[in-house]
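Supplementary Note 2. Why include the ligand at all?

Several targets in our set were suspected to adopt different conformations when bound, so apo predictions alone were not considered sufficient. For every target with a known small-molecule partner we therefore ran a joint prediction. The input for protoporphyrin IX containing FE is given below.
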Amino acid sequence: MLPLIAERKDNPGEDLISKIVHAEIDGERLSDIEIKSFVSFLLVAGSETTDLQMANMWLRLLEHPEQLAAVRQDRSLIPAAFAETLRHTPAVLMIMRQASEDTDFHNKTVRAGETVTLLLAAANQLLDSMDDIAFADGITPKQEGNFVRAPRSFPVTFRPT
Ligand code: HEM
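The joint prediction is reproduced in token form.
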């Protein structure tokens, strides 16, 4: 990556690395190591995920020829086909989060600083696994933000079914 970054410094093109190398905020540019880390991260985050997710989409479309026929006939369904495969058959099954404070969950305590691995695919059961989901303590979360907008905290209660 470093030789490529050096090359793009001297001969910038229309590519993303050239744009990152020459990007400037308040007269400051990213260091070569910062650029290397960022581009390496984007490569992994953007390429393997897309590659695997497209394979998943084709797997489902070929398994369900009537769905493939529907998308072929009405091209406006393409974004929905991608979105539905992301929901139904995600390429990334796990994400990790670190507890910021001791948290009791399902009769176990996750200690502050411990890492929890979350299974995203299980989220497809949401509707079935939480019959009685409700706002916690009658609190209705408020949406916040002007650019991206959502509740910053969303406490709920439910009994796992
Ligand atoms: C279908 C394709 C993709 C899938 C399934 C996917 C999946 C994910 C998932 C599950 C996360 C959350 C990780 C976490 O919070 O622990 C994530 C974050 C991220 N993805 Fe993707 N991704 C895809 C495409 C891309 C592409 C094309 C790019 C960029 C070129 C990208 C860049 C990122 C970045 C920068 C983050 C981190 C965001 C942050 O927390 O700051 N992803 N992606």
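The longest strand covers residues 94-98. Residues 1-92 form one domain. Comparable summaries for the other entries are listed in the accompanying table.
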